[in-house]
TrEMBL record:
Parts of the chain that traverse the membrane: none
Cell cycle in keyword set: no
Compartments it resides in: Secreted, Cell wall
Family as reported in the entry's similarity comment: Belongs to the cell wall mannoprotein 1 family.
GO molecular function: lipid binding
Disordered, as annotated region: 159-197
Function recorded in the entry: Constitutive protein of the cell wall. Antigen target of host humoral immune response.
Cellular component per GO, a single term: extracellular region
Protein name: Cell wall mannoprotein 1
Source organism of the structure: Aspergillus fumigatus
Main localization, broad class: secreted
Keyword terms, alphabetized: Cell wall, Lipid-binding, Secreted, Signal
Amino acid sequence: PTLVSREAPAVGVISDISAQTSALASAVSSYNGGDPSAVKSASEKLVSTINSGVDTVKSGPALSTADALALTSPVQDLTKQVEGVIDDLISKKDKFVAANAGGTVYEDLKAQYTAADSLAKAISAKVPESLSDIAAQLSAGITAAIQKGIDAYKDAASSTGTASSSAPATETATATETSTATGTVTETATSTPVIPT
């Protein structure tokens, strides 16, 4: 462990990101609808950790061949972690959208993509030229996984705006339905949100 931290600060960076990705995975895994603030908070911490890693790598020394090769396994493990989180986010898309949080998840994923892309470029710039292609391929797995999430939530980004604008109508409809529960009210309630849409 001492050798790793001395020779390859980038390995430490990947380790920090991996730990924060686990925290996000846990937040997403335990999300079952409603307030998504725990997921948002974990996502923001992840982006902050990645950006801090970008600074560490940029300000650090060039990576030797051994340093670069030491990154291979941690980056592959991180890629699998990220893929798992994204798959989980996609599987819970309906719950996030129902909570009017589809747009939030979409924006968070875009921020993660930008940060991950910056880190990939920072690491690629520090590895020996002969290994830059390998470094690019390794990091491409992470950005590809995040892109998959962005694509899945793309429609939710615009639908959140619509959902928010018609939310008061929907809430009123629900309240009216609950209080009166007559056929006439239900018809009126249902038609109300349809008109603005």
